[in-house]
Design goal:
Helix content is 74%, strand content 0%. The protein is mainly alpha-helical.
Length: 70
Amino acid sequence: MWLKPTIIILFVAIMISLGYSVICLLIDKGKSDRTRKALGIRVTLAILLIACVSYGLWSGELTLSAPWYR
């Protein structure tokens, strides 16, 4: 029950971090390390997202229901 909201929250956080890093890159023009820190946050969030999806598939809470998947 907690897994699907967690996945949605992590995905939204990744998109926010992506927007923040683009803004930092355009404003700072590579002179500060804010872009690098935002990239580190985004990579960490992506690893957590992959871990949550993997756990959901392993536990059976998430299933593959694509029509072409057997």
